[in-house]
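Known limitations

Files may contain more than one protein. Parsers should not assume a single record per file. Below, a two-record file is shown to illustrate correct handling: read the sequence, read the token line, then continue until end of file.
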Amino acid sequence: MKRGVIIILFSIFAFVEGMSQDVTLQERIIAEHIYNFGVYTGWKKNKRLQEFQTDKFIIGVCSQDSAMFELLQKICKYRIIKWKKIEVLYFPDTGHIKYTHILYVGREMNNYVPGIDKKISDWSTLMITDSCNNYNKTMINFFPKNSLKKVEINKQEIESRGMKVNPLLFTVAKKYEEDWEQMYQESIDSLAIERELVSQQQLTLEAQSKEIKIKEKLVKNLSDDISAKEKTLNEQTELLFSSQRALKEKIEQITAKTRILNEKTSVIKGQETEIVLKKEQLLLQAKEYEKQKQVLAQQKNEIGNQRTLLTEQKLKLSKSLEDIKKQQLVLYFLIIVIILIGLLAFNIYRGYRMKKKINSALKKKNVEIFQQKEEIAAQRDEIEAQRDEITSQRDLVVNQKSQIEYILSELTDSIHYSKRIQSAILPSANKLKLFPFEHFVLYKPKDIISGDFYWYEQIGKKLIICVGDCTGHGVPGALMSMLSIAALNDAVKSHSITAPSEILNYIRSYVISALQQDNTSSGNQISVKDGMDIALCMINTDTLEMQFSGANNPLYIVKNTDVSLPIAIERPMAIAQTENRSEPANSQLPAVNDLQQTANSKLLELKGDKMPIGIHDRMDNFNQQDLVLQKGDCMYLMSDGYADQFGGPKGKKIKYKPLKEILIADSQKQMSKQKEKIETFLKTWQGEHEQVDDITIFGIKI
């Protein structure tokens, strides 16, 4: 009965659960579009709102029901908007409302929309309403009255509050109705599948219930058989007791007969004594016969009579002796019978003892059977409980697996989209075709997105090239690389800085300010090592004059002719003073720390300063090295990922020596052939080892 009730309750719960999906589907769609509206809406900088600026993107929910708040929390838990984590706040009434980037107002709060709009009028807050038809200044309104659209966007009202509407926002709104209809149909199909699954589970439970009833009936039959055997055993025990009583009565009868036999034996002994006395009398009479021979004759008749009497007595005595012998035989027979009865009694007693032991063993067996029955019942209940627990755990694992797969898919999609953004920021293939010199770019991110970047820009005759290696790789490194490229564009395009040392000084200040590394009182202070290493040079395309500055990263130059150490380029004092230098540039010779050569080529290594772009113990101005290039010279800017790759026969790093040997040996070949040789060596060296860092090499032939 209990199992049937449980099955009915489970079916009702599954049906109600399926029905609840129809109710919450619209809220799920609205929550997804609230997130998308945040992605495709821009917020302009507003000095009045600096006190509200945080490192999180805030979404507020003003509603009497917290369902939308909880749904947005789940959806936004692993997502970001504007490169910020998302925080969802709940306002049960209008009095608790504070600054948010997006404010969703539930339909039950539509009467308070004018007051809410007045409260947030000084903020750049995107207000989203649901079925609000009594106020004409809504920004985004779901299900407007007398409209075929599912969502209405008031672009003029949004932009008047200091926000910018991305054209994709209208595309998302247009697609909203199609998504809603599609998800509604999918939910109906899913509900039908769930109902079919519930019906199958009900049939399975009914079959299991019937099987359990059959087993219970079988256990009851076994119990009845045991009771019948116990009853038969009790009857046999009563029969044994009655046999013992009959045996006891027979023993008493034998004892009485033995007592009678003893009495007759004593009588026979008395008669024997009389016979002895009579013999003695006969002897006396014989003597008297001799003495009274004469009297004997007289008494001859009497003696004859006495002899006749004696004969009769002898006959009687013989009969008595025969009777005595018969009685002795009977006595012997009785003794044998008694012995046999004793043996029989002993056997009966022993059988009784054995039967008693058997009864005791049967009782123990019955107890054990009863205990085993109880244990089987307990084990059956435990197995059913474990089965229910395993079923619930399996459902939990399936749900968690689906959630993890969904989160992983979301994160992977976000990272792939980030790769598109990063690729858009890096020089495109069309832009690289406009590069004035023969070149190659070897760019191998460790993950989907990279912490390395390459960049170039031409301002008139000045060609500025750099390769940067930001702290970390993957998402953190990509964020740093985007920040660094933004700093380079700001320095070169916005402030027209072309001197490499000044560019590095500027982007260092830019990065420190952006990351708030100089704000020691802030709780968001980043580690002093967060920043980047960079090699940056500027080439005059007409005169081939080259200026180089580096932060930890070097520049390799391979010359194809015999050269001496490069001579610094002489520049006017006015330029040096403009760059805040205390002496003209020709006093700054290149720091050639490494010089390798073959019969036809020489490799010069211009090392950068031993400090990164970012906060550091050493914060001097970056040095600049100037020299003149020649036709046929090859330049190589790179990160440290190539040299740090593990592999080879002993699983060690490549280091820089093999790379330098390749650059010197192939310097006279085309740049595409050099790239192919470098990639082939890297692949052979790496083998089965995992790539340990992002790899970037920018090769240029003058």
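...continuing to the second record:
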Amino acid sequence: MSAGPIPDSLPPDVPDPDVSVVIVNYNVRDFLSQAVRSVQTASRDLSVETWVVDNNSIDGSVDMLREDFPRVHVIANRENVGFGAANNQAIHASAGRYILILNPDTILQEDTLTALVAFMDAHPETGAAGCQILNPDGTFAPESRRSFPTPATAFYRMTGLSRLFPRSPRFGRYNLTHVPRDQVTDVDALSGSCMMVRREAIRQAGAFDEDFFMYGEDLDLCFRIQKAGWRIVYTPDTQIIHYKGESTKKGDFRYVRLFYGAMLLFMDKHMTGRGSRPLALLLKAGIMIRAGMTLCGNTMRRLSAPLADAALVIVIVSAVGALRFWMTDTSFAVRFFLTIAPAYALATVAGILLLGGYDARSRNHLRAAFLGTVLGFLIVGTLSFFIQDIAFSRWVVALSLPVAAAILVAGRVVRAARQRGSRKALLVGGAGEAERLRRMLASHPSPPFRLEGYVSDDRSGETDLEETRPVSPALPLLGGMSQLRDLVRLRGYTDIVFAARDTSNQAIFTAMRNLHDLRVHVRMLNEGDEHVVGKSSVAHVSLASLQGTMPEVVSLPSARARRLRHRLMGLGVLAVWPLLWPVARLAPRSSPLRRLVGLRSGLVDVVRGRLALVGCAPIDADRIPRNWDVACALFPVMNTSASRELEPDERLRAYWYYVTHASIALDLEIIGSHLRYHPPTA
């Protein structure tokens, strides 16, 4: 194990702090920043030191800590040494009476530290204490309190009996679901995402067992603390939010191996001799079966998109082949349907996979779908020249290419439009933060959601009137916190953005619990940040957050290729315009299809080269450097009325982002945004 140097402990003349907060980080910089801020806010009236052990992250976490939080103690490991080992580094170097083990993807309530310290001080027999843990949607997380996985409790959990009978003391034993959540309870184990441990208990029971690389180490530590004679207690006096699993996604094979491997290790270490050996062996078999089922389920979810594409290509090629046999009045060739159609589908899916088309992090899904289809065509078409028995299929293969490419690309466009286009948000906080978010979204060519207004904290005497007064007619004050649930329920908001500067964590937690049964995505906007943090995602809402500062020298993508792409896209729409027109006439006037059909003359100008399909607005034409080659367009990059209020530098940055990131996907996102919300320029 290679680790960075451990800093010296506090000098003798400095009193020991009340709490040492220990956070292990691995590639979750934005969540970590949010967690450290919440620790600082919760440190009032206490002496608190914060330790962050970074397990060789590549996302700039260490630099962020040293720049934004200079008082935080940082241990930067040169490799990922695991959760337990990294915690031990900080535990041995820290000096607090109590140690708070905290995950980086958590947010503390303002009173979390004081409440836990007060509880530990009042109960000196308690070795470790935990509090209420909330899911990102505000629901209570059952892992806030747990029992050890004995053969009986594990059997009830894996067979689903614990879910069927949660109020039963027998079947609900593992997560103590039969005990009210607002009741102080002695438990077997707490969650390592937020667990305050007495230093004396650590000295007696030992620190984390480093054989547990990730998962299970909290169970093991609680087991040893309890064995040493200390109580393990759950208290409902305070609460935190836990985003869960940001460092290791639960769909990964690595997660399955680490999680279920940890359960087996715990069984080997502590369950030997507890109950009959046959039951223990049965439990191990159950864990392995459950791990296999989880892995199979995750694999099937990952294969669903490739299998759907393959099935679609097979249907298209088979339909074109059947049409060929019918038009030529020839008998059906069974070998065509058993060889050509599956081969075309397999080659297409392989091409999309190689080009990153099934990678959720990729931004080139459309290009991968198109080029993957072309690759399938080239492979099968080439084979037809070497295998004479399938030479008759060349006409079918050639005709299937544009049909398959168009359908695969169109399906992805529609799916992306549904995910992005219908998201509308409101901000909870002051007018200043609402206006800041609005301006960032206005300069973004492809914003993650639309901000339609804001809600202020309406508790009397706690909000500055200037902060709640609207600063822009485009961003109305929708109401107060007491009206938040009704606004979401009746107006269908999909995203709630909480401004951390203006809203206390306690108020945020309360609001989240009040909204837990509504389908709404909760996000956090920290003061000064240019991104919002939500469950399993960090949405960049400003161009500066996406690309940093504008470099002085950069290799620009081919403007000629961009112009050719625009002409071909315009020509494609004109080609199907006769089919779209009668359908559009039946749609509402405000529908995207109706707006698109009304742009025939503008599309003709695009094909003739008089207009770009996507580019600049006329008022910006003289501001953009000539070498960027951004022409006046049917769909300007700056696609909102609010963008007219932006400073010239902000508008220029938006065009620079488009020039350096131009792609079919970005063009379609900008076009879709225009057609959904904004009248085109022509």
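Parsers that stop after the first record will miss the second one. For reference, the second record is described as follows. Residues 1-13, 459-468, 546-554 have pLDDT under 50 and may be disordered.
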